[in-house]
Automatic annotation (TrEMBL):
EC number: 1.14.11.-
Lineage: Bacteria, Bacillati, Actinomycetota, Actinomycetes, Kitasatosporales
Name of the top EC class for this enzyme: oxidoreductase
Source organism of this protein record: Streptomyces luteolus
Designated name of the protein: 2OG-Fe(II) oxygenase
A single GO molecular function term of this UniProt record: oxidoreductase activity
Domain Fe2OG dioxygenase: 112-212
PROSITE patterns: FE2OG_OXY
Domain of life: Bacteria
Keywords, comma-separated and alphabetical: Oxidoreductase
Length: 799
């Protein structure tokens, strides 16, 4: 029943009045506009080539935005640009003409009739022969920007067409040679300028700004009553399992998420600035929500779909090697049967990132997450994190009918076929029953819900605050980490201290990541530990590391720099700060140790050394934050590791030496660093005492071997351990050659391995390289340098 209500709702909105399109074109007489440019004067229209060349002399290479950057790349955008501070627009009829154009644009794009549009000049552009602008999407440069207006100035040219696309449709606009051509489109539309083939294309680009408008009343004959009935049915009927498994008892859904067709930014997401049919549908839903006693907000959604997809051509196997035709019986042909007569590959792997010609067959999986939504009564918006289940989603336009902002293709994976991942950004209208407003917002990590708990506590309503807080237990899920989650964590921490129930307090704090913590939270953390006990504090701290506890990511690296200050702050405030600081340091060490162990086992020397060196600075931060017992535990564990651990310890000691504070004053961190320095000195001294490799000794130590104990690896190990054998020729089939390649590469052995493609089977040629000796000499030189530095910076204490 739940799915039926959503389908009927989508159909009702699809059949509602469609107002406008995503783009439009209007022509006006050229005499309506006078353009005056610094250094050129008034432009005669149509603009001729001699005047255009003067314009170019006053212009600069046009730039474009990518994320937060402003770039200049003629491979993406090749045109000349004059900024609006260097030209003026006028003429006796210009304002009247522009006003009429904007009225027409408002109607054509389907904006409400009460909307007031303004056009703000952005640039004067000149495109010469061969110049272009690749497909792109305009950034919304103002909170009230809804679209772009391109005014094509009359000039004699060919090519340079403006192509605008949205939701699978594409429209091509050509400029007039004699009249002004106004082309308007919504800001989320992808568009491009095709290369100019002759002459010069001259345009004014303007930002379309929409002033705030009054709420639109219900249009006559609207299906609001029917929509309200669908909404009510959706929230009262149990959901159906998407795949019919029925493993749990179905419950009515908690919200309804209707996906709109256009994209919006956080700044531009507002009931008064919705685009085209979005405005109509959102207004109808908002009215239906009122009739069904529901609240409605606008949200931004991130959508990912995984499709079973068929590429137009690709003949690669799981390992990335070209497959041969199915009827080819030669196992050693290695794709020769796919070559054309000139010996060139008959199929080329897709790398362009354009997957528009891939055939989508079955939807394997989809994920929808709300990351932002508005507050009621135009009170701005807030960051949230809310995964949305299938049973709560409704859309009139399917995701696959829109243009994804990113796509990634994955070849055959063994358990399933070729898959294509597609990502979309969509706005949504989100509804929920008014009586569950608190739970609906709390489930999304809304700070507003936690502020309601604070208000209850401030009013002395302790029991009601406890009841509301307990109601969060089934829905108070992961709320992220880092600075973005810090305000919500601070609010939840304040409630946890005051709610005076240990289990409820732990539940409120558990969903956050450890990177959320900073020194500002130390007083309340210490108070909570003092109130609920050290066992409680240890359990809460453990929850912040998640189920995996892996040390990963730049976010944690940045946060670890603050860890010593956080530990010091915890131990200095009233309460039981050490009850939090100690398990915090231990938890960070456990997560770090897992990462360290993984890299110590890597045989590829350069990769391992680079990774362990990166871990050196975080290790120094952990030791500086540790108490006496934790510091002793860490140093004991590190001293038991193999010699490769020095690739992490020495960078850590260098970091500590650069930050002298707290490492030479007899504190636990100082003793820990000195212990590690003594250990490194002992290991380096022992390594330098080993005999130097003889000039005729070509032996190598094999890696830990083949886990499958195959019949090939003993032969490889015999070659590697031989003092005199330098080369080996080995006739092997393709799969066996691949196995030997893999063993040599994974262990980073100084052995070249190439295939001589003669005879059947082909011959694998192995040759030990001079790196057998140069690597060892380089390692000895590094050890001598490191030992000298250690004895200077970390001398052993006397006595």
């Amino acid at each position: 029943m739940g799915q039926g209500a959503r389908e009927r709702l989508a159909e009702l909105l699809d059949s509602s009045e469609r107002r406008g399109d995503f783009s439009t074109r209007i022509e006006m007489p050229a005499r309506a506009l006078r353009i005056t440019v610094d250094g050129v004067g008034d432009l005669p229209l149509p603009v001729r080539a001699p005047v255009t060349r003067k314009l170019i002399a006053q212009a600069r290479q046009a730039r474009f935005g990518r994320g937060e950057q402003t770039l200049s790349d003629t491979g993406v955008r090749d045109t000349w640009e004059i900024t609006p501070d260097r030209f003026t627009l006028g003429g006796p009829d210009w304002q009247r003409t522009l006003s009429g154009v904007l009225d027409g644009v408002r109607t054509a794009l389907g904006l409400p009739p009460t909307t007031v549009l303004r056009a703000e000049p952005h640039a004067l552009l000149v495109y010469g022969k061969g110049q272009f602008f690749l497909p792109h999407q305009d950034s919304e440069k103002d909170d009230s920007m809804v679209g772009s207006l391109v005014v094509s100035v009359p000039s004699h040219h060919t090519g340079g067409e403006l192509v605008v696309e949205h939701a699978g449709r594409s429209v091509t606009y050509k400029a007039s040679r004699e009249r002004l051509t106004f082309t308007a489109f919504y800001a989320d539309c992808r568009h491009e300028v095709k290369p100019v083939t002759s002459g010069y294309r001259i345009t004014l680009t303007m930002n379309l700004l929409a002033e705030p408008v009054r709420p639109v009343g219900e249009p006559g004959g609207s299906p609001v009553a029917d929509l309200a009935q669908c909404v009510t049915e959706h929230f009262t009927q149990p959901t159906e399992d998407r795949y019919g498994y029925g493993r749990t008892k179905p419950e009515p859904p908690g919200r309804l998420v209707y996906l709109l067709d256009h994209e919006y930014t956080q700044r531009g997401l507002d009931w008064d600035r919705l685009k085209g049919v979005d405005a109509t549908r959102a207004d109808l839903l908002r009215q239906a929500a009122g009739q069904a006693d529901c609240e409605a907000v606008l949200a931004l959604a991130e959508v990912k779909e995984t499709w079973d997809a068929q590429p137009p051509y690709d003949r690669y196997d799981y390992y990335g090697e070209v497959e041969h035709f199915d009827d080819c019986e030669d196992d050693e042909c290695e794709g020769e049967c796919l070559l054309d007569p000139d010996g060139e590959p008959g199929a080329e792997r897709r790398r362009s990132g354009d997957f528009s010609d891939y055939e989508l067959t079955d939807l394997i999986d989809d994920e929808i997450t709300l990351g932002w939504w508005t507050r009621p009564e135009h009170a701005g918006g807030e960051q949230i994190s809310l995964p949305v289940p299938y049973a709560e989603v409704c859309a009139t336009t399917a995701n696959k009918d829109l243009t994804p902002y990113q796509s990634e293709y994955e070849g055959y994976m063994g358990n399933y076929g070729n898959t294509l991942d597609r990502w979309y950004r969509r706005a949504a209208v989100v509804l929920w029953p008014r009586q569950r407003s608190f739970a609906a917002r709390a489930e999304a990590g809304s700070a507003q819900a936690v502020r309601e708990l604070q208000g209850r506590l401030d009013a002395g309503e302790l029991e009601l605050a406890r009841t509301l807080a307990r109601s969060l237990a089934p829905i108070w899920n992961h709320h992220g980490s880092g600075p973005a989650a810090a305000p919500l964590f601070a609010a939840a921490l304040g409630v946890a201290v005051r709610v005076e129930e240990a289990d409820t307090a732990a539940m409120l704090l558990a969903p956050f990541g450890v990177e959320t913590l900073d020194e500002r939270h130390a007083p309340d953390l210490a108070k909570a530990a003092a109130r609920y006990g050290r066992t409680w504090a240890r359990g809460v701290v453990d929850s912040w590391f998640g189920s995996v506890g892996a040390y990963t990511g730049a976010d944690r690296d940045a946060w670890l720099e603050t860890l010593p200050g956080l530990g010091a702050a915890l131990r200095s405030v009233d309460g039981d700060g050490d009850g939090v600081a100690t398990p915090l340091a231990e938890g960070v060490w456990r997560a770090f140790e897992q990462q360290l162990t993984g890299w110590l086992g890597i045989g590829r020397e350069k990769e391992r050394q680079a990774a362990l060196e990166r871990l050196g600075t975080p290790l120094a931060h952990i030791l500086r934050a540790a108490g006496p017992e934790t510091a002793e535990m860490i140093t004991t564990a590190l001293r038991s590791r193999p010699d490769t651990v020095l690739e992490c310890l020495l960078p850590s000691l260098r970091t500590a030496a650069r930050r002298q504070a707290g490492v030479r004053d007899g504190t636990p961190p100082a003793r820990a660093f000195q212990s590690l320095a003594d250990h490194c000195e002992t290991r380096l001294t022992a390594a330098l005492a080993r005999p130097v490799r003889a000039a005729d000794d070509w032996s190598l130590t094999p890696d830990r071997g083949c886990p499958s104990d195959c019949d090939l690896c003993p032969g490889l190990d015999n070659f590697l351990t031989s003092r005199t054998r330098r080369t080996m020729e080995w006739p092997l089939a393709k799969d066996k050659r691949r196995h030997i390649h893999s063993r040599i590469d994974l262990a980073s052995l100084p052995v070249s391995h190439t295939t001589r493609r003669q005879g059947r089977p082909y011959t694998l040629v192995l040759a030990k390289t001079d790196a057998v000796f140069t690597r060892e000499r380089a390692a000895r030189s590094r050890a001598e340098t490191d030992l000298t530095w250690l004895q200077e910076k970390w001398p052993r204490p006397r006595g």
